[in-house]
């Protein structure tokens, strides 16, 4: 089975880039092994529509992104099946070129949506132009997001080995250095 972990978000808008930074944090800190499955981590940025071929080529998709939810606060983490999205979840109002929700809906209408699609979402605090930093609420959410993702991959049969211990500030710094 081909499993895709997709980080979505605009890294130039503070917490909006958390999905991208999260998958970079996980992929740089852990090795995953499975004799049954392939695993890919992809920085999807804001180009949701352009990701359709990657999504279509996957059997199992986990989208890491910012979401809105009724009665929530910044830093709250949600993990749900796309086909059973809680009514309280709003997946809109971000700085993406095309919303990830619309991309998944287009994949579904085209018949290329993976068999299993899950969303690992966090409620952002700060979405502001030209901010490469994350709020304390977003940083604190990373531990919960990491536990949820590692548990899910473990249930799918992956073994996990920690290879490094970068924190999110180090990941952000490495990302900015690579940018310039």
TrEMBL record:
Pfam families: HycI (PF01750). GO terms for biological process: protein processing. SUPFAM superfamilies: HybD-like (SSF53163). Keywords: Aspartyl protease, Hydrolase, Protease. Signal peptide: none annotated. GO terms for molecular function: aspartic-type endopeptidase activity; enzyme activator activity. Coiled coil: none annotated. Belongs to the peptidase A31 family. This is [Ni-Fe] hydrogenase maturation protease. It comes from Candidatus Campylobacter infans.
